[in-house]
Amino acid sequence: MTPETIFYAVGMPIIGVFLGLVYKGIDRRVSARMTSRIGPPIRQPFWDVGKLLLKETIVPANAVKWIFNAMPILALASSMTLLLYIPFGIIKAPLEGYGDLVVILYLLTLQALAMAIGGFASGSPFSSVGAQREMVLMMSYEMPFAIVITGFALIYKSFSLSTIASTPVWTIVGPLGGIGVFLLLIAFLLVTPAELAKLPFDIAEAETEIAEGMLAEYSGRNLALFYLSDAVRGFAMMAIEVVLFIPFTLSYLFGLNLSGATLYIVEGLWFLFKVLLFYVSAVTLVRTSFARFRIEQASRLFWVYVNIIGLLGLLLIWLEVM
Amino acid sequence: MGKLTSFKRSLWVFHASGGSCNGCDIEIIAALTPRYDAERFGIKLVGSPRHADVLLVTGAIPRDFADKLRRIYEQMPDPKAVIAVGNCGTSGGVFYDSYNIVGPIDEIIPVDVYVPGCPPRPEAIVDAVVKAWLKLEKLEKQLEGKEE
What we know:
heterodimer, B: alpha/beta, Rossmann fold, two-stranded antiparallel ribbon, 5 helices, 19% strand, globular
């Protein structure tokens, strides 16, 4: 155990939770401003979690107790592990070399899967309906997501996220591939709200029709863990998007000659700004502007339209690479 | 720990509509609109009683709904508070002697804050939620005392 390992094991999850909650707060604030409300303070998600930790944690009588209690922990653990695979700007991914984009795809799926299993285990009809919807939605959006990852693998001949982060994708593709990558970006932006279970794809957690769906029976500490895992996953997902599509560093863009602590601070803030950009455009704007889809509408959207966009992008990239 | 502060700043409300005429329900929604914007105080409507801190009940309670209301109340995790909104909920209103009404809400579950009015103004509802905080804080202190 080197000090670095300890820092990554302890520091990264704490930073991840902190940033995830901050972005959640900014998201709520921006959404409120869009509907001409004042909105809650940025600190609101921290208070929410603090309050949830104070509340009683109820396990329903007909729930499978150990699965019901284990799933929130699994969800949070998988989203925190996710953070260790993402290179943040100029900081290398702590687990670089031990996994790649495919592992990230699985870890993202694992969190949603943990929520669905928790929903099935809670023994409430609302949760079961929510969990089934989540499974259907997952089957729909994983395909375009996999197409995007395949596209990047075609360009770089590698699944490694560090390789992808080292050279911006736009600089190594030609005009045809550029259009292809742009189509992949569109497909990925459409997948994002579904992946994060945000409107218009929060069909599995629809609070007005199925009483929060998978989370219906969760309360207190368990709900707080799901809340945190959702926040961390939101941040991680956006970080992946930044790494894939706009990994440009400030020093690269403007030819700055920074070194030492200044470099890390400037590049770190720049990275967080890019994440914010993606968060607001892919989640906040979309979730404030659209109403909820029905499950079969969402399924059709992903299976037909987003898949067509993604496959077209893949085809263009393939034509160029060949 | 400063934990009580987080209670004060984040309050999730579950809205159960009994035999209400929808008047009070609309006013509750009005409290969340841009004009009143209860979310800036951390007040949020949630879809499941398991997530809720406060139960808002509207309407005089019909016979069929009494049992369900009791179950909703029991499903909420402690500490919890109940607010009865509207004349019907607090006293039975114009339906006070109706044969299919069980009675005002406080005959079924313990009510902490009463908001009279037909319908009450959104300000009154926000004020009621503030009053419910006081009760929740007291309950929380009791719970902490029990643990020690």
